[in-house]
Amino acid sequence: xxxxxxxxxxxxxxxxxxxxxxxxxxxxxxxxxxxxxxxxxxxxxxxxxxxxxxxxxxxxxxxxxxxxxxxxxxxxxxxxxxxxxxxxxxxxxxxxxxxxxxxxxxxxxxxxxxxxxxxxxxxxxxxxxxxxxxxx
Length: 136
Ligand SMILES: [Zn+2]
Description:
Elements: H1 19-22, H2 30-43, H3 46-51, H4 58-62, H5 65-75, E1 79-90, E2 97-108, E3 111-112, E4 115-123, E5 128-135
Antiparallel strand pairs: 1-2, 2-3, 2-4, 4-5
Bound molecules: zinc ion (ZN).
Residues 6, 8, 10, 17-18, 35, 39 line the site of zinc ion (ZN).
C-alpha cells in the first residue's frame, strides 16, 4: 500500500507525522501542534481540533465540539486545505506561551481564502493547546 503523505505538508507519511497525535499522543511542541491542527482541518477531525483548543480560547465558551463537527462537515468538498507553511517559531516565553506564524493556503468555494496568522500556544499541563490567533 502506498503511504499517504501527511496533509500538514511536511512531506512525511501521515502515519509517522500527524497521525499519532490524531490518535491520542501529545505533540512535543507548538509547531507540531500547529501542523497537526492544520492536518486535522484538512481531514475534518473535529474531535482533535476541540481537544487541542485551550480552555481559555473564545470558541470554548461560545462553541461546542458538535458545532465544530457540523462546521467542518458543511465545508467538506467546498474548502480545500492545500498547504501549510511555517514562517516563524517563537519558543515559550516566561509565561510559557509559544508563538507560531504560519501561512495557510486554502481554497474555499473556488476562491483563494489563504491567510497568515500569528498563533499563541500554551501547555496546559497535559499538552500544547491553541490559545488564540491574530491574522498577520
Ligand atoms: Zn503532519
